[in-house]
Specification:
With 118 residues, the chain is of the alpha/beta class. It has a single domain, classed as Response regulator (Rossmann fold, 3-Layer(aba) Sandwich), CATH 3.40.50.2300. It has five helices and five strands. Helix 4 links the parallel strand 4 and strand 5. Helix 2 runs parallel beside helix 3 and helix 3 runs parallel beside helix 4.
Length: 118
């Protein structure tokens, strides 16, 4: 069963995403900021990270760089609101594999997760 690390400072976004992913057979770990994401990544080595960009403590781009430093093969997909194009480009440069725009369609997030976990 593929393991997904959901990183978002909005509890309802994590809840919504976790529900969708567990219903489709994924194991889900959660983190509410980039710093927590780095620690959780080291602890559980997920198959994929869904990373919000804008968060307190440590943003998603910094967290992506940190995780890629720990594990150059880490698969990270950014989840961002519309209008964050420059940040998405920054995230891709930091090592993110893809990005999904919030609010997302359930099918879009599932297709993206499948692409990186199958």
């Amino acid at each position: 069963m593929p393991k997904i690390l959901l990183v978002d400072d909005a509890a309802f976004m994590r809840m919504r995403s976790a529900k969708l992913l567990t219903e489709h057979g994924y194991e889900v770990e959660e983190a509410e900021n980039g710093q927590e994401a780095v620690l959780k990544y080291q602890a559980c080595r997920p198959d994929l990270v869904l990373m919000d960009i804008t968060m307190p403590v440590m943003d998603g781009i910094t967290a992506t760089r940190e995780i890629k430093r720990i594990d150059p093969n880490a698969k990270i997909v950014m989840v961002s609101a519309l209008g964050q194009q420059s940040m998405v480009i920054e995230a891709i440069k930091a090592g993110a594999k893809d990005f999904v725009v919030k609010p997302f369609e359930p099918e879009k997030i599932l297709a993206t997760v499948r692409k990186f976990t199958s």
